[in-house]
Amino acid sequence: MSPKKSRSKPIKTYSLETELVFNKSADQYNSSVAPLYQSATFKQDSLSNMGEYDYTRSGNPTRTHLQNHLARIMRAKHTFAVTSGMGCLDVITRLLKPGDEVIAGDDLYGGTNRLLTYLHNKGDVKAFHYDTTNTELIKSKITRATKMIFLESPTNPLIKVVDVRSISEHAHKVNPDVVVVFDNTMMSPIFMTPLDLGVDIQYESATKYLNGHHDIMAGVIATRSDKFAEQLYNVINSTGCGLSPFDSWLLSRGLRTLAIRVERQQQNCINVAEFLKNIGFKVRYPGLKDHPQHELHNSMCRGYGAVLSFETGNIKLSERIVESTEIFGIAVSFGCVNSLISMPCKMSHASIDAKTREERDFPEDLIRLCIGIENCDDLIDDLTKALLKSGAVRINERDELFNVVPVQPKL
Ligand SMILES: *Cc1c(COP(=O)(O)O)cnc(C)c1O
């Protein structure tokens, strides 16, 4: 921090739960909810006296209100709201120059993988994918030619945890100009503050937890660097991917209940994870003590989120389970108030070809559950019925559920 900044009055911050609902409105009528400026342009007083806003692609008060709120929640200095999580990645990759080398995980979100592959095949960047759970391997691959590193933790649906602190620290030592980019969609600001772990630019799909109601698509980019903020803003203003006023307003509304939603979702998810584990399924969830990186996850996060995956040992069986639930809707995405079930190989991760999935040890029978805020007993009843109907589990003489295909764990 520069001496000038440290003399300025520090902004008082409250705990996250309070910040989420605390709203200091500058509105002329003191409206308790910040107003929606559904306007593309703003009239100017005169040619010599231009106002703060002129055109919504460049800036809009509703978007600014949202961004200022997000900055406090993400502990960032600058945040930008754009039209989707992938829009964030598009903006960020535009900071690269032709031929720049980038390192990325091998279990990234399907859309992230698709965009990086597109840029790689076009010759725009050279993208190298490695298993980011292998910290030493990643460290050994970082050179002065590495310009950007894309990390995600925990990944989904394989729930691999990345040592963000140690990789960021090493990367900046090797190349002070490297940009470490982190996708925090899975944890949300409630459970993780990646900027505190040495990450330069963080982004997340606000379509998921931040909005929480699956009624808009949005993405948020956050940084503490003035330099990156200026470059990011320039791309957003030039390309016009800033979030629309109405979607910004809806996201502001969704955001207020973030803490209470994800806490409830997480508690439900812990219960479901234990239920499935006790039956004998191989469950991947960072909150389970037998997750191989449970401790590493705990060293970086304040919670575990509400996404888990499990293997049944048989693709057909998995398909039948997915098609037998009632409360769990068959849909991609997560972070919404209602629970979802999916088969990543056929849905969210279908854009990764089968050969690559096999190389990356991606189990084709994997089922992903994204847990909502419903009554947990109802969720477990729904799963029990689906497991019985599909033939994946039976009831033994002691009235206990047991799975039919014993699963060989492979992590
Ligand atoms: C959904 C998702 C994205 C993409 O966000 P969109 O809003 O769908 O564009 C990126 N990363 C992760 C981890 C996601 O789950």
Descriptive notes:
The protein has 411 residues and is of the alpha/beta class. The chain has 2 domains: 240 residues, Type I PLP-dependent aspartate aminotransferase-like (Major domain) (Aspartate Aminotransferase, domain 2); 145 residues, Alpha-Beta Complex (Aspartate Aminotransferase, domain 1). Helix content is 36%, strand content 15%. The strands form 3 sheets. Strands 1-7-6-5-4-2-3 form a 7-stranded mixed beta sheet, sandwiched between helices. The chain has a 5-stranded mixed beta sheet with strand order 8-9-12-11-10, with helices on one face. It is globular. It binds pyridoxal-5'-phosphate. Pyridoxal-5'-phosphate binds next to helix 4 and helix 5. The site of pyridoxal-5'-phosphate (PLP) has 15 residues, from helix 4 and helix 5.
Structural features:
disordered N terminus, lyase, 14 strands, 411 residues, pyridoxal phosphate binding, alpha/beta, 15% strand, Aspartate Aminotransferase, domain 2, five-stranded mixed sheet, PyrdxlP-dep_Trfase_major, seven-stranded mixed sheet, binds pyridoxal-5'-phosphate, 36% helix, Aspartate Aminotransferase, domain 1, 2 domains
Write the layout of secondary structure elements.
Layout: H1 3-7, H2 16-21, H3 61-73, E1 78-82, H4 85-93, E2 100-105, H5 110-121, E3 125-130, H6 135-141, E4 146-152, H7 164-174, E5 179-183, H8 188-191, E6 201-205, E7 219-223, H9 226-239, H10 245-255, H11 258-279, E8 282-284, H12 294-300, E9 307-311, H13 315-322, E10 329-330, E11 340-342, H14 354-359, E12 367-370, H15 376-390, E13 393-395, E14 401-403
Parallel strand pairs: 2-3, 2-4, 4-5, 5-6, 10-11
Antiparallel strand pairs: 1-7, 6-7, 8-9, 9-12, 11-12, 13-14
Helix pairs in contact: 3-10, 13-15
The structure holds pyridoxal-5'-phosphate.
Cofactor: pyridoxal 5'-phosphate
Protein name: Cystathionine beta-lyase
Family: Belongs to the trans-sulfuration enzymes family.
